[in-house]
Amino acid sequence: MLESESLDIASPNWIHGIRYSPTPLEKFYEMLAALPIGHEEFTFVDFGSGKGRGVLVASDFPFKAIVGLEFSPHLHHNARRNLAVYQSGTQASKNLKCLLMDATLCDVPLDLCVCYLFNPFRESVMARLVRRLEDSLQAAPRQMFILYYVPMSQHLLKASECFHEFRASEDYTTFRSHDNGA
Does residue 44 register a pLDDT over 80? Predict the structure, then answer.
């Protein structure tokens, strides 16, 4: 685990970051496998992708594209290095990229989308991200799933008019966009 204070982060949101820790593999596979989707139709976005483990594990599923967003240059550098050397016989998607970016500034892909969060930031930043996801859905209604591991601010998604709780476990909650004709 790395505390956000120990990372060289230019974003003013650094103070709201939660310490970096990779998602347990078993839980990550469980969340992805439980999605009722054709993975090849969806783009996967990891908000707070750290060293890229989630991006690499997601590539075992045939997602159309996989994007990791990380605001720590140190973690982002490690993620890019990990993507460059990664080799796996189970890799089903090779359209991977990691971006050095604050999640509150990203343009959410207008594709069918699976968003992943391992409780990467505190409520104030999460509220801005939820608004960004809502704005994206209103601009382009479509299916969107949010896989939220250790969902400390899930009440923000529960209060959203764009999402409903789809599945919950002891460790994570999956939210789904309302169909809106998509």
Answer: yes
